[in-house]
Fold each of these.
Amino acid sequence: MSEINAEASAESFAAKRVSLVQMRSGQRGRIVVIDGGYGLARKLDALGIRVGKEVTKISAQLMRGPVLLQQDNTQAALGFGMASKVLVELDGGGQK
Amino acid sequence: MKILLMGNPNVGKSVVFNRVTGANVIASNYAGTTVEFTKGSMRLGDRRVELIDVPGTYTLEPTCKAEEIAVEMLDEHTDGDVVINVVESTNLERSLNLTLQLLKRKIPTVVALNFWDETKHKGISIDDKKLEQILGVPCVPICAVTGEGVKQLVGKLKEAKPSDYDYEDNQRWQKIGGIVDKVQTITHRHHTWLERLGDASVRPLTGIPMAVVVMFLAFKVIRFIGEGLIGYVGEPLFEKLWAPVMMKLSAVMGSAGFLHDLVIGQLIDGEIDFGQSFGLLTTGLFVPIGAVLPYVFAFYVVLSLLEDLGFIPRLAVMVDTLMHKLGLHGFAIVPMLLGLGCNVPGALATRVLETRRERFISATILSIAVPCAALQAMVVGLVGKHGAGYLAIIYGTLLAVWVVLGLIFNKTVKGESPEIFLEIPPYRIPYMRSLAKKIWIRIKWFLKEAIPFVLLGVLIVNLLYTFGIIQFVGKITAPVVTRVLGLPQDAVGALIVGFLRKDVAVGMLVGGGVQLTIKQLVIASVVLAMYFPCVATFTTLIKELGVVDMLKSAAIMVISSLVVGGLLNLILPG
């Protein structure tokens, strides 16, 4: 964890706020920004994925494949590009 | 009066529909099983009313064609119509998003809280009475697959009324949050083994091997059931029971002559050969029932099981990266899988894809390179005799064509291919009765579609031969069929009939005195799979793609089948 901590102290704010792509499987966080157009926000909104929601990352496929999310009782697969536009604030700052 | 069944995808609308109408529509455990609306009728008091199974939609602002259809259905409603809003109780918050949008339309509504039984396992408790008070419309807990609560739901239809519930659109989620806080309590509980399995099958490390094993097992089981049914049921039935009857009829009809040949076909060494005689009551019945049905049944048993389990969306996630190379995303695996049974439902399922580009690519590679079960059953039966290696050449070629065409389309077809965005439903233990029903619906549909067309095909084969048309067309097309593809002139008959039924066409490759070498059999099988869709698929594709895109697609089919058939003719030894 030392490398991550070093990075974290350098840009402590950015380390807390990561995209779904950067998030590790099993981590939990709250969505803070959906950095896309109206279309993307509306699409995600349909499955209840929106700013303020707590989500858990279940897995990510290899080679920039889709990311799997769990929020409430819904699991959804998001393409890599979409997932990179959703930023979350990790629970507990994301590290010890 | 009409009743519209509306709700999010995969909340069990079709199951409710089947329950209430006694009708049979296909229901599965993934979003987008229903892509066109189905109408049925039900008794309400002393009158019959129309019930419509509307494709699932998350919102009334559509994002794909199936959702557009749903919204159109709602827009067409008239006074006195009622909406049954089927809601996933285990996903109340998300479901209410659509519910609130529906209530705003001021159409009389009843809310059906489906999957009520699942809430208990998931530690969710919902106060349905309180929800009813807040929304101002009846809310009925149901479990559609077992039928619990469905009667009460129907009973509440007369109490359906427009809701007084009002809100500002930009406040919708806050309102929903407020409602959920009031009516739902969640208690902590441990993960079930199904959930663990579900998560494991979407992690690359465990998911990829699992997907490979499942597909391999699916293939093995289909062959085992299909071969077993043919060997132990189909063939004995025809050879031991039906053949003697036909021989007697043949004797009565004088063992020869036009009518005899039409009904019984040519006797081969004085005996009936169900594969080669080509009479209406011999080959015409043997092809759909004796040869194809066993594989169709086997295929649908396995597919239906995987669908109800919830495996398909997970497979879509696993193949997503690959499908992007073909200009599609992972969910496009659904039309392909359905197409392996019959290209018609496969072509319809392309509606789950968002853009015209994706629908064009998927429909075209589907109808060129995804062989239907009927064609496969005949090919496996005829070519398999010569060794599995030849089957591998056929399947390998089609797979290569599928990939190569996709790669080319991805570079050349204009438009957008969005990324995958798909709800992954929980794994569910299939409910055996609805599983059996679904398999039965599909078998019945196959028999109804196949038998008339097979008989028509056999009839036309006889007429074509009797009037010398095949020989005539064979001479005209000889430069292409004989030179490029290396097939005998007679094989052109199969290409003509292939437009009606591909299984009959494959059967023609060995019947009617045509003698093909195994190399020619392999080439003919590949060309028959690729060159053009059968008439049922063709008409579906025109509806789905429009005439212009269909013509483009058809040109690609003809050209690619000639190129691939010609290449095989050059490459294959013998």
Note: Chain B is about 60% helix and 10% strand.
Amino acid sequence: MAKDWTQYSNLYLHLFADCIAVRGAAKSAFCDLTRHEIITFPSEYYPVLEELLSDRIGSLLEKISSNPNKERILGFLNFLDENELVMLVDDKSAFPPLAENWDFPGQVQNAIIDISTVLHNFEKIFDELSALGCQHVQIRCFSNLLTLGICGPLLEKARHKSIQSIDLILKYEDGMPDETYVKFVESRPMIAAFAVHSAPLARRVVVDYAHPEFSDSAPLKEIRFTSQVIDSEIHCGLITQKYLTAPSVTTFFEAKSFNGCLNRKISVDADGNIKNCPSMKESFGNVRDTPLSSALHSTGFKDKWGIAKDQIAICRDCEFRYVCSDCRAYLEEPGNAFSKPLKCGYDPYTGTWEDWTRNPLKKKAAKFYGIKK
Amino acid sequence: MPRETDPIEPPLKLPRSEIVRLPLGYQKIYPKPLMPKRIADKLMVDNVKFRVRSFSAGSNKPISKIVE
């Protein structure tokens, strides 16, 4: 129910410090860093928002009393209130903004390790990642080389290290019952996410509900079977709503100042080459003869860590720029490190999502990278 | 008028967990959180509101974006 705003004439409207408005071209967004929500609104209202936050309620009501858009402005005011984005305060100086600092207690935060025809020396890789303080590892296998039988003992090597979680993306094993997959994940709490590609039937199999009473809500852990055939790293780099990062204080301010994907990341491609990302061409050595720390400290390795969304063409006008994990491997303009991700189908100037593969302007770049779809 | 240090008697129905015992020997009723749940479907104009989930145990951002 709408408030009677005249009762609050002496108060100011104040946007909660953890609800940050991000202006986009067509739409803008409130990123709620505590409730992990994104709430969008038409960018025409952004100046209205700034005006509403600038003065006491009484003065605002006086100002808009003769405005032909009075009802719409009041509607927006009620929208802010009903969505609990704002509070009423008498002294705005008592509510400072959040500090926009980001740091991490390790040289590397996450790592990707790809497997195709060669099984790397995981004991060595995990030891080296641990020395760098790496917390999250994703293992992607494009072939049947990494079976569950091999994967189990391999994951044991990651225990008692800095590694807190492992994401697995493995190829479907013919005839393997779902129960085996479930037991595999159940018995290894370190596995945070598990996707099985090239499966005959796309489906989700629940491993663990948060609580039996909440079985109708989203499960805590599940195995995702997809019929998508992932036979190389070329499939990576998708920017969809699903891949927007859940807004939080940590991820938001990291993405604001650094690259959402590459910052504090190290990767080992299927041939053992150490890279920022397996999809990138530039290699900084091979795990067979180069320690990860040497590659990390090579000239140029950290150059892309600092490419923030505000520096990227088109993305800088997108309301999702601080919740987007970006991609620097596949670009709309392959020679321009600051161009929009090729596989992003969002147009911030219309506020609409589309299938990026159908955009004729992207076909040339897709051909350049050898993307056939 | 009671002084600030006078004891405030909590209503009988109030659960004990909502009473905070302060060191000066008086009791104060701790207010309930004043934050009702948002109504997810209450949208304005063409607004879109959606929740992005992530596994709490894993990385708080996607490590790669390879599965469609």
Note: The beta strands of chain B are 19-21, 27-29, 49-51.
